[in-house]
Design a protein that fits this description.
Layout: E1 6-14, H1 20-30, E2 34-46, E3 49-55, H2 58-69, E4 74-79, H3 85-97, E5 101-104, H4 121-129, E6 135-136, H5 140-147, H6 154-165, E7 171-174, E8 183-187, E9 192-196, H7 208-221, H8 226-242, H9 258-281, H10 284-287, E10 297-300, E11 310-313, E12 317-320, E13 323-326, E14 330-332, H11 336-348, E15 354-359, H12 362-370, E16 375-378, H13 389-400, E17 406-409, E18 418-423, H14 426-444
Parallel strand pairs: 1-2, 1-4, 4-5, 5-6, 6-7, 16-17
Antiparallel strand pairs: 2-3, 7-8, 8-9, 10-11, 10-15, 11-14, 12-13, 15-18, 17-18
Bound molecules: 3-hydroxy-5-(hydroxymethyl)-2-methylisonicotinaldehyde (PXL).
């Protein structure tokens, strides 16, 4: 097991940042590996396709590989776009020279169109490079071309995988994004097929092949078996599609770092919300601002779209013997109420990610204006759907042109009046609440 391997990608650059070395290096980084690269071609490309390619000379590719391998302990490498037979031949020579364990992504064309390997390069790929590799990761179309038979069903994929393995490859993974959501792993030595199941997810797919083969390489370099690595790579690419951003007018790129950044954001949000809760609980003045139905504080991760993306206090914060007490812990998905407010607010302003609800009083409202906060009020009688901030926030935006700091209502029949304090983070809204509490106390007991 090597925790932090050094890996090399031998591939093209995609100026649009979706596929090629960009995707490869991000993926290596996500697995905690150090990524290096030997560029084979510079493509002028965007989400709608490849406009032009400027291939490197075989000597330039060899020189990059040599610079890396004479200095760093690289054991595993992967290939992507190889452009033509000259680079294929040179890469085969370098792989033999530096005794690299190789993963070949037999890239032939870009998702949005554009040739990435000239037809004349196929023979070299089959006869010189594939026999040197441990694993190759064709999609159905590429498997068909390499094996010389059409691949439309899983049975076709099995036949093609065996034929490709006969070239001297230890394992073949026919990636299934183009067949069904599953991948088919064939290991030649035990003559064993394994289906790696997956799920179809919504999102951009430009760069999936590069991301998949890079994830596989990173896992193999860490010492995982073919089957374990294929499972990890599959899960990784599904997350990269799920976190893709709508970039460009064509096929959106995958986001290999999206899931790692989301995990980091979840950790930070939990920490900030717990700290804000401690801060509120320690204040006797805050206890006076807790409504009868309880208070809650919540914060969403960046890009939140569901209740599960908002951390809040399980069971709310109540007043008990004059003190603020949280009933449960801060967890994601713990409150629909405060999450509903935040999810609505951030649809209008993605910077508004936190909220607290406190008790309404005329003193609180005059403290808000005293502190120069933007304040908006609405009448619950006008509300089309009870408790819905989907109505309150757009109304407030009509007045202020932005999400205000404070939104309150004076309640209604059986509805407790409430003040919602909105802001960018749980700590920020907690500080605002304490400033309000101090001001209310100062004006109540002058
Ligand atoms: O996904 C295959 C691929 C590989 N390498 C480069 C690419 C693409 C697809 O667009 O641009 C450089």
């Amino acid at each position: 097991m090597i925790e932090k391997p050094i890996i090399m990608t031998i591939a093209g650059s995609d100026s649009g940042g979706g596929a090629g070395i960009g995707a490869d290096l991000k993926t290596f980084a996500a697995f905690g590996a150090h990524g290096t690269c030997a560029i084979t071609s510079v493509t002028a490309q965007n989400s709608t396709g490849v406009k032009a390619s400027f291939n490197m000379s075989p000597a330039a590719v060899a020189s990059q590989i040599e610079a890396i391998c004479t200095d760093m302990d690289v054991r595993w490498a992967k290939t992507g776009m190889l452009a033509g037979p000259e680079i294929v031949r040179e890469v085969a020579k370098q792989v033999r020279k530096y005794e690299l364990s190789l993963v070949i992504d037999p890239v032939m064309a870009a998702e949005a169109g554009g040739e990435l390997l000239r037809k004349e390069g196929l023979q070299g790929l089959r006869e010189e490079l594939l026999p040197l590799c441990k694993v190759t990761t064709p999609n159905a179309a590429e498997a068909g071309i390499l094996a010389g038979l059409p691949v439309k069903t899983r049975e076709d994929a099995k036949k093609a995988a065996r034929k490709i393995a006969d070239l001297g490859v230890e394992a073949v993974i026919v990636t299934g994004g183009h067949l069904d959501a599953s991948d088919l792993l064939y290991e030649a030595a035990p003559d064993r097929f394994t289906v790696i199941s997956g799920e179809f997810v919504e999102g951009g797919t430009h760069g999936t092949g590069c991301t998949y083969s890079s994830a596989l390489t990173a896992c193999l370099a860490r010492g995982l078996s073919f089957k374990e690595a294929a499972g990890e790579a599959k899960r990784f690419v599904v997350e990269a599609i799920r976190h893709s951003m709508p970039v460009g007018r064509g096929v959106s790129p995958v986001n290999p770092l999206g899931a790692a950044l989301e995990r980091e954001s979840r950790y930070k949000v939990l920490k900030d919300t717990r700290k804000a809760l401690d801060f509120l609980e320690a204040s006797p003045m805050f206890a006076e601002l807790i409504p009868e139905g309880g208070s809650n504080i919540g914060m969403a991760i960046s890009g939140a779209g569901a209740y599960e993306d908002v951390a809040a206090v399980e069971g709310r914060i109540v007043r008990y013997r004059g003190r603020a007490r949280s009933v449960g812990c801060v967890e994601f998905g713990a409150s629909r109420y405060v999450a509903g407010i935040i999810l609505t607010a951030l649809r209008y302003d993605p910077c508004i990610r936190a909220a607290v609800n406190i008790k309404f009083s005329e003193e609180v409202i005059s403290a808000c204006t005293g502190l120069d906060l933007s304040v908006f009020s609405f009448d619950r009688a006008d509300e089309p759907e009870a408790g819905s901030m989907d109505w309150g926030i757009p109304e407030a935006i009509k007045v202020y042109g932005r999400v205000p700091d404070i939104i309150y209502d004076r309640g209604g029949l059986g509805k407790e009046p409430l003040v919602r304090v909105l802001g960018p983070s749980a700590m920020e809204v907690a500080k605002t609440v304490l400033r309000l509490a101090e001001r209310v106390e100062a004006t109540s007991f002058p």
